[in-house]
Every structure is written in C-alpha cells, then in structure tokens.
Design brief:
The protein is an alpha+beta fold. The chain folds into two domains: about 140 residues, Trna Endonuclease, Chain: A, domain 1; about 130 residues, Aspartate Aminotransferase, domain 1, CATH 3.90.1150. Helices cover about 30% and strands about 35% of the residues. The chain contains eight helices and 14 strands. The strands form three sheets. Strands 1, 2, 3, 4, 5, 6 and 7 form a seven-stranded mixed β-sheet that branches. Helix 4 crosses helix 5 and helix 5 crosses helix 8. The chain starts with 6 loop residues before the first strand and ends with a helix.
Length: about 290
C-alpha cells in the first residue's frame, strides 16, 4: 500500500458539495455524527415564523431527540441563536422527549466555544466540527465533537453528603414510612444482594460494600416515598409505568431521573416491574 495524503476541501462556496449535499449524507446515515444509533425523524422541518430545522434525529433506544443545524464555514452568532430557537420550539411542542441542540459547522471558533460554554449545562448543547477530505475522485466527511453536552451534578453527588441514621428518619417521617423504604431496598437486593441503605440528610441512598452508588434514591415523606431512579427517558418505560398504575410524578430532564410516588403495598404489588427498572438503572449508571 502507498501512503497518499488527502486534501482538505472547503465546502463553503463549493459549487457541488453544498449544505444540502451534507444534509443528505447525514440523513442517509446519521451515525456519522458520532452521537450513537440515531434515526432520521424529519428533514427541513418547518417552524412557522422561525424557518426550517435542518435535521431532526432521534436515538433508536431512548427516544432522545437531536435538533441539528448545519453551517458551512465558520460559526456565527445567528447560527447559535437559530439552533437554540429550534431546540426550544421542539422541546415545548414535544415535552415527552429529551431534547439536545446540535451545531455542526466547518469551523468552530474559540470565541464561539467561550460563548456557548456560559450556558452549556442549562441548555443541552453539542458542537461538532465537520471537515471534508478528498482523495483522487473520492470525498469523505469527518465529524469531531468539540463541545460535549455538560450534565449538571445532582444533590447527592455534591460531596460530602451530610450523614444521618435510621432513628433520625424514624423521628422525621415515622416508622411506617421507613418500613416502606425497607421494602423498596429489599427489591433492590433482588437485583444485587450487596446493596443496603445509606442514610443522609435529605434522602436515603444506596451503598454496596460500603461505597455509595446512588442509581436510585429514596426521599421519604409522611405518607409515601418519592423514588428517583436514574434512567434515560423512553416510551417503553413510560408505557409500563402507566399500565401498572404507578404514579409518575415527573421525568427530570436535567437530572435524567424518573420520579415515582409509591405508597404502602406498592413494592409488593409492583415488585417485578420495580426490579426491572432498578436493574436497568444500575446498568446504565455503571456503564
């Protein structure tokens, strides 16, 4: 084999390889962006009074949606505004999905990164730099993530947590509620018997062999327990919870948590489903 150096091709202003051409290549195979197993939901999606969204992609497993805007050449302020605007419209129109704004450009400047870095974490944003390379009569596209989505830490990750003990919680919410927590921990033990409760001020977490591992936390109240489990949002999980009649309080996009309200008798009634969800949460948390 003979080494041949490919030549960089600047797409901005190119008579043949236009933005529409790039859009078609991504639409044919969204995996080239490097964001996972994505499927095309829409192309040139019309937003009244706001223009057209270049690409709407969706994760094949979790249902997470990516609002993708393309720009040939260097990123500019209007590109940032347009991308965030389309993301905001889509998340308000379809709140049942988790949404991420994605900017794809040939050149992403340090000034651009400084600006978007100010609100990354509050607005889920990914910036991808695209380069085209030619070799003889062939052309290839290379995509590199230069700004990944920043996920904000949660309260139990803010170390060190303030420790507590079982008598504190018995006095605070009553033994009946704490018996309910015990039942939920027992369901966790069916997934991995090494887990046990870890009492903190504000919530009851989990620990395995003495090490905190809060893929699920329990927030005891006077008459019930809020169960928060870390898991990507999916239509399948939503459907299973609805069919079981479990009270889904909300899905926190910021923390990627399902928040469930469980009362006395629920752990026994829904043991199989809860065990499945706890197992999936553990696998996702430790992946």
């Amino acid at each position: 084999m003979i080494y041949v150096k490919p030549a960089r091709i600047v797409l901005k202003g190119h008579p043949e390889f236009t933005e529409l051409w790039v859009q078609d290549r991504i639409a044919e195979d969204p995996s080239i962006l490097g964001l996972g197993d994505l499927i095309l939901k829409d192309k040139e999606r019309i937003h009244p009074q706001a223009g057209r969204l270049d690409l709407l992609l969706q994760d094949a497993d979790s249902g997470r949606r990516y609002e993708v805007e393309l720009q040939l050449g260097r990123t500019d302020e209007s590109h940032i505004v347009r991308t965030i605007e389309y993301w905001d419209i889509e998340r308000k129109r379809y709140p049942q999905y988790d949404h991420v704004a994605v900017i794809v450009a040939e050149e992403i400047t340090s000034r651009f990164l400084n600006v978007v870095g100010l609100f990354n974490g509050f607005i889920p944003l990914i910036a991808i730099q695209m380069q085209a390379w030619g070799l003889a009569d062939q052309i290839s596209l290379n995509f590199t993530t230069v700004l990944a989505e920043l996920r904000l830490g949660t309260e139990e990750e803010d170390e060190p947590p303030e420790p507590s003990d079982r008598p504190y919680w018995d006095n605070r919410v009553g033994r009946q509620t704490m018996d309910l927590v015990d039942s939920l921990v027992s369901v966790v033990k069916t997934v991995d018997s090494a887990f046990g409760p870890k009492y903190n001020i504000g919530y009851v977490g989990l620990a395995r062999n003495g090490q905190p591992l809060n893929f699920v936390i329990f927030v005891p109240k006077r008459e019930w327990v809020r169960v928060e489990l870390r898991l990507d949002r999916s239509e399948e999980v939503q459907k299973r919870l609805e069919e079981a009649g479990i009270d889904l309080m909300e899905y926190s996009i910021r923390n990627q948590r399902y928040k469930l309200r469980l009362s006395k008798g629920d752990p026994n009634k829904h043991e199989a489903l809860l065990a499945d969800l706890f197992r999936a949460s553990l696998e996702a948390f430790t992946a």
